[in-house]
Amino acid sequence: MTRTLHATPSLVDATAFAPPVIVGTSSEQALDILFQALLDVARRHDPDLEAVLHGTADISRFSPQMLARALQVQGIWFQLISIAEQNAAMRRRRHVERTEGRAALGGSFAKVFSDARKQGVPPEKIQALLSDLRIRPTLTAHPTEGKRVTVLEKFRRIYLVLRELEMPRWTDRERNGLMNELRDQIELVWMTGELHLEKATVEREVAWGLHFFDETLFEMLPETLETLHEALAETYPGTDFKVPPFFQFGSWIGGDRDGNPYVTATVTRQTLHRNALASLTRYRDGVRELGRTLSLTERSLPLPADFRAELDRQLAESGQARAITRRNPGEPYRQYLSCVLRKIEATIARNEGEHPSGPDYASADGLIEDLRTLERGLTEAKCGALARDLVRPVRRMVEIFRFSTVRLDLRENTTRTTDTLHALWRQRHGDGEPPALGSAAWRQWLDTELARPRDPERSFEDLPDAARETLATFALVAEMREALDREAFGAFVLSMTRSVEDVLGAYLLAKEAGVFLDSAGTEICPLPIVPLFETIDDLRAAPAIMRALLNVPVVRRSTRWQGGVQEVMIGYSDSNKDGGFVAANWELYKAQSKLTRLGEELGVGIAFFHGRGGSVSRGGVPTQKGIMAQPPGSIRGRFRTTEQGEVVSFKYANRGTAAYQMELLAASVFEHALAGDGERVGPGHDDALEALAGASRAAYVQLLQTDGLVDYFQAASPLDEISLLNIGSRPARRFGARSLSDLRAIPWVFAWSQNRHVITGWYGVGSGLASFIDVRGRDGEATLKRLFNESRVLRLVLDEVEKTLMMVDLDIARAYAGLVPDAGVRDRIFSMIEAEYALTREMVLRVSGGTELAERFPLFRDRLKGRLPTINQVSREQVELLARYRAETDEDRREAVKSALLLSINCIAVGFGATG
């Protein structure tokens, strides 16, 4: 077992600041401390596993039960390595900041603003960009997280204890106490187990998502905005910048109905209330702390007249003026905060279905204004530092998270929305079938229904259950925007969008459910309807669909009301599954470019919501590089992206890492906006990418259409067994069919990475490059080498292909292929994969000029090489476990093998740092 400390996973950017590598004694000690603590626990509970940790055990001879324990300890060790890597990355960043200044940290606010100042960017432009900035990472409940919340909490504590152990102030006695606590936490992880014992519920997924807000995000996101404020003050001294709450979090957890029958209107309602309670509880704690702290008396400073008047009004409104003033005599700020606290508690009671006796907050706006009043009162009393340092962080928190914690998106697919529309048609027209989709008659019916006044008395009781459920979900928007918070919802995302009629159908359902508002005598939809274009054909059709959509009056009115921006979601996962890595990336790039130009033509801002996953195959590239590789002008300060499973826990489980990741994302978006039409490449860029995409897609599709591929994939990977992991509430397939077309992209990627083929991140690339050079000769090769240095999108693609190729192991992949019973299918498909791998490796190195894979990424190489021996051993054991599990007929023995098999899946995923 390798015990060398390497860089943090580049896939999720813990090293994207790119400081010089500083691996000192304390960093090595950190890994040694963790290893020794794990070794102590292993000796206490299972001495035979000491050899496993040292890498000297022959685990192929283990029983299923013993093998399960060995796999568990290896998985824990991988997680401890990640903790040490995160800790080392934080140390490196702090070292650079101390020795060179914060502006030396690439991807920081200080660096972006310092560069802007050097380039002569005036503060007015900075303020204008700040005012338009909108950033929203969106947590999803896609089944990619293998760790339970209780285990996440224990790993979080291990990280904190490790950080404490670095402090030089401890006595030997205190240090021994910390070491004991570290061992205790590792022992608790050992005894708890990382696997979910039963299928996750949506309610548990909601709790999983809120865990990160409670642990880090409530506190660290306001600090991130303060960091931006400080960087601006240092770079542009004397300018009073206004920093709006531009960074917020979205969520699909509890609102994503697409293919998940467990997300109902009732579940969504419960989710909204739980989200609200999480933020309200945190505000209550913050205000209580302010009340304990702000013990200023009227004798010590004059009370501003305006604040006195507002305090008197609040006391009178509370109905408890005498009790409040008696409790805090002569302490006006505590009296004021007592009134605020009472209203927060009344709001919590209302959220929980009770009837508060005193006044409450109708929305977050009221609490924000009360906190602003407190800030003004302190500032006018010459206590501006207290207002800035104590009150402003709480006010920023409320501005960011409001009474909803997240902006909850609703998501549904067009199959369900169309079924509901058909049910409405039949209700109004009696017998017969609705017009065909895509027909002029269907479009006319949609236009007519959108134009006519809504009948508020119309009943949906006679509709089918599924249709009533869809309409009930839309009805929640109108209800909860009024009762909870106007920003409780983010958008309605329409999966599988194929036509403008699909989107207009969603508008009609929103209207029928009472979501529409009257604005200046006309109807508008306050809920953004966001089409999701997923496959390559969808991406190509997107510009025409959006042109037609944005010419519909109700859509144009709604878009103007929502801020003049139409959001479009683009899917990385399904486009990759559909056409391969190069083709997907190029089609995504083209679609964004065309839609950006369309928005400029129509005078409507087009903002993109990037449906990325954790792995490279699903768009999971380094944040800064990924953003800078977007088409010029396509971001303009507005950026949404999905954050899934293991990526969420890696980025946001610890406060330092969370602060870094949020700053990196925001600074990168700002940098792209400042660059404007920045990237300039020489001639032939688009033609070259078009040719590469076409040839690579042809090779990829040829593999997909090879007879027997589905049988090969199911037999030569743990595809079906992954569903036994209980890592998500959603089924692996949308509608229960067992074909390649309806298989979700996450298990598609997950299973190919488990069996070490990893075709989703490279297959077809070699054929594309070779075809380009074969057709164009030396000029073609020269063009590719030039574009490799000039084109951000091509460079990003080839960089990630090189990294992915390092995860492939053809010897191990051949062992998985041995599980395919049909020798003809096995040999035909594996030989295609083997040949394309060799070609891709050769061609990528030829274009990049390298001699070894990923030699430009030494941190990544070292990290992966340090883990591969163990990952490879687990992969070989997984092959044996798959064979035994599938052949075993005795139920008890089969269950024992299943436990070990699931641990092997979890262990490989932790080792690579990604699942789907």
Automatic annotation (TrEMBL):
The active site is at residue 577. InterPro entries: PEP_COase (IPR021135), PEPCASE_His_AS (IPR033129), Pyrv/PenolPyrv_kinase-like_dom (IPR015813). Transmembrane segments: none annotated. Gene3D superfamilies: Phosphoenolpyruvate/pyruvate domain (1.20.1440.90). PROSITE patterns: PEPCASE_2. Residues 617-636 are annotated as: Disordered. Forms oxaloacetate, a four-carbon dicarboxylic acid source for the tricarboxylic acid cycle. This is Phosphoenolpyruvate carboxylase. It comes from Methylobacterium oryzae.
